């Protein structure tokens, strides 16, 4: 049984390691939660509590690492401490929202001042919980946020000026129709559903071919290149990007970023 939350004053800040890929498998079907917390005793407690509920959990011990992981891997929720080294929680959530991320964010902090709560929510956080906290309340808030973000049966998907009609199975960019094969259509759908986060080659193989062998990543490269060529229209900025060491992502061109 997981104990109630530890006193946040008991943890010690640890300098985070170099940015690394998450240890958990994004294709295991479990909801994935990123914990951004620099106090080891607290994040270990959080991770154990979430894993006991059937979630997978990753930990970032500073704001830069949290932002990088949230932008490059498919998480379902971010539990974010306000006071982090390298980059504070307000800056992390603001940058996520500027990049187009809709990742739900639960602020978890010892600062109970109303002004701090308002700043966090105005920056783009979805909920707020102060330390010390009840583990049961934390888990209830996590469940509520995940329910709120459950996907609905939408008939259209959009990213920038790309629009997919899932019923008619058509794709347009601006006013121009783009003809895709069935495989390319499903690949674009997967990329839009995760945008602006990166989608790994392993996840693409798992979702589209029901395979998970590194030797077959060339198959992914071929289909991504075909899709990239079709999406790259004259006068339009490139949106399908290769993320070195990770996979692929739909992201706004640098010139179009705020």
From TrEMBL:
4-aspartylphosphate PTM positions: 81
Ranges where the record places region Disordered: 1-29
Domain Response regulatory: 32-146
GO molecular function term, any single one: phosphorelay response regulator activity
Keyword terms: DNA-binding, Phosphoprotein, Transcription, Transcription regulation, Two-component regulatory system
PROSITE patterns: OMPR_PHOB, RESPONSE_REGULATORY
Single GO cellular component term: protein-DNA complex
InterPro entries referenced in this protein's UniProt entry, alphabetically: CheY-like_superfamily (IPR011006), OmpR/PhoB-type_DNA-bd (IPR001867), Sig_transdc_resp-reg_receiver (IPR001789), WalR-like (IPR039420), WH-like_DNA-bd_sf (IPR036388)
OmpR/PhoB-type domain mapped to chain residues: 154-252
The entry's DNA-binding region: 154-252
Coiled-coil annotated residue ranges, if any: none
GO biological process assignments: regulation of DNA-templated transcription
Protein name: Response regulator MprA
Species: Methylacidimicrobium tartarophylax
């Amino acid at each position: 049984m997981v104990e109630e939350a530890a006193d946040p004053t008991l943890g010690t800040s640890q300098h985070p390691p170099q940015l690394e890929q998450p240890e958990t498998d994004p294709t295991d079907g479990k909801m994935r939660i990123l914990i951004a917390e620099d106090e080891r005793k607290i994040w270990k407690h959080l991770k154990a509590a979430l894993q006991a509920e059937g979630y997978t959990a990753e930990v970032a011990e500073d704001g830069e690492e949290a932002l990088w992981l949230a932008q490059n891997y498919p998480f379902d929720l971010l539990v974010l401490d306000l006071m982090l080294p390298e980059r504070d929680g307000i800056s992390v959530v603001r940058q996520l929202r500027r990049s187009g991320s809709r990742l739900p964010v639960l602020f978890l902090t010892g600062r109970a001042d109303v002004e701090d709560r308002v700043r966090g929510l105005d920056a783009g956080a979805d909920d707020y919980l102060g330390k010390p906290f009840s583990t049961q309340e934390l888990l209830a808030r996590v469940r509520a946020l995940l329910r709120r973000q459950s996907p609905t049966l939408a008939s259209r998907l959009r990213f920038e000026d790309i629009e997919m009609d899932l019923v008619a199975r058509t794709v347009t960019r601006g006013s121009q129709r783009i003809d895709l094969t069935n495989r390319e259509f499903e690949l674009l759908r997967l990329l839009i559903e995760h945008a602006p986060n990166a989608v790994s080659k392993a996840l693409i193989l798992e979702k589209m071919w029901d395979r998970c062998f590194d030797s077959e990543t060339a198959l992914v490269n071929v289909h991504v290149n075909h899709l990239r060529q079709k999406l790259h229209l004259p006068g339009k900025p490139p949106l399908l990007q290769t993320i070195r060491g990770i996979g692929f992502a739909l992201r706004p061109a640098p010139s179009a970023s705020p």
